[in-house]
Amino acid sequence: MDALDGVPRSVLGYPVKTRTQIVMTFLVPVIFELMVYIVLTTADILITVEHFRNGSPTWAWFTLTLIWLPSVVCFCSIISTPERWPEQIGCDERTGRFLFNNVAILLFFPLAALYRFSRRIFWSVEALFHDKSSYGRAQAIAKITETSPCELYHFLQAFLQAAPQMMLQLYILLRDGTFRNYDTVTVQVISVVFSFLTMATIITSYQRFESQKIVGRCYPWSTAEQATERRKELLRATSAVESTTHASPSIAPEADPIVPNIMRNFYSRYGSEGERESTANERVRSGVSGSARKTLNVNAFNFDRHQSKLHHDPFLNFTDDDKLQEYSLPPDTVDVSQARPSGRSVSFKLRDTIDELQEMDHYLRSTEDVRGVTDDSDDEYLKPDEFDAVPKKPAPPTPDASASMFHRVSVFRHMLLLNAEAFIKEKVPRLPEGMFEHGELRNTTERKVVPSESDRTDGDAISLPSRRQTIVGLEQDDMVGKTVLFIGWVMFLLMRMLALSTFYVFFPLYFWMLVANHYLLMIACIVYEVRLHEKLERYFFYLFLAYMYVFSLLEFKIRFVHVRWWYVGYIGLMLVENVATLVLWFNLGAFESWWFYFLHHTIIASGTLSVLCFLFYYAFLRPKDKVLFVNEEP
Q: Membrane-crossing residues (predicted)?
């Protein structure tokens, strides 16, 4: 497998070099995430200190709790997962090292995150100094893409720290008397802005994660063993379209199991091409060496009418006695001038001539039913007699239909029925019990129509095409697509957060009612989506996923069956909610500051820009589908 497998190889349809892939996919995004993380963490810590100084310990403790919350949830998630613990049960060295590392990440999570970002930046730069197919390049890419628990912390930070921190600081900023301490206001604005960037970065990275995971992408916080096992299973069970179509320049006969039998029958009757060439060469060599095989020599004058008339039979001037005398001579070259001194001297092989005449007579007798049709324009030749006569030999009997032919038709019929049943089971949620349970009848039918071994291996029978199962996923976005999508989500989150924060300032009760109804609606949509292809066993995670859908939508942990309906419906619902809240607080709220007029125009502008970015991304920059063929089990 290529070290950069899964990394976009083109930008706007133009292929790029491997170093450009590394820079745009790894180096630039990691540097940007590192800068955003440093500024966001520093700003939140400064906000906590400012709240304590200003005599607001409640807001300070809320801010400090939100800083620690992602790290605590990440620690609990890792410790409660049995697959992450060492295989050996008991308190040994590996178990102690595992606990020590996770406790260290819990306590010193900013340093752990910085170490993770610095490590990826180092190996990204290191990969640029190695050639494309070198071992150093592959090792550097493996170091960049290796999994780490810090990635889970970074993912949770967007929804457990950045999102609630935005809501909290915006609410504090919009209250009366907040604008007196400009140092606190400056830090709060910086925290809000970089919270937007943090959320947009995570949403852009995990936008269609499930569609990308089924074709090769792994969770970045999974263990090394899980990631390796996932890649091996994907390589074993699937094959890419490129490997299928470009494995050989032509379609080999062995692709169909019946083709070898056809070629075997052909070679058994006519021999292979090499055998035919070698046989022809042997015949030429044997003819030159004077073998016993006789050939009928045909020259150009045999096809010339005038030349053929000038050709005379050597026995034309022989008497019967002379002919008998010639027949009694040994089968050697006879000089006719010795028999008739007064005649023309002709040297020929009598035995060869007799053998040729006998071969011609045998050929004419064997083909007497099919008379050659001569040219009517030639006056010397007449139309053969009995041209329209009934053939003397009877016509060959009509071949009977074999049982294998009916067996193949029945297999084709069963294949269509199974495809129809699979389609009904996939699209209809609740089918009557026992509707398609007819396995006994199918087994009985198969036992009745099973052909014999000779019918199975008949190479001259027709091979019916079979349907190959495929997995359709999604490639990762290129640099331009990620940038446009990132800007779209920044504008979308700006519209959403400003609309909810200002609405909470004027109507706090209706705010909680709106959020609760939206949350319950998202839970209902998630339950409806997973009713067919997932089990309802992740109740707590679905509750957290519905909380994420209050701010944004991403395909994570569940794969959308109807992706277009999900995104169109979600964006439409969010626009309706934001416009409704905007109309309510702008017309019914009591405010005098110009700040709210500015927020009113900002919400409208950001919502419009976000919709335009999403439409442009969907129309021109969305990634292509990635198709994998499921390998048949031997």
A: 22-47, 59-80, 100-117, 185-206, 484-504, 510-528, 540-558, 564-586, 598-620
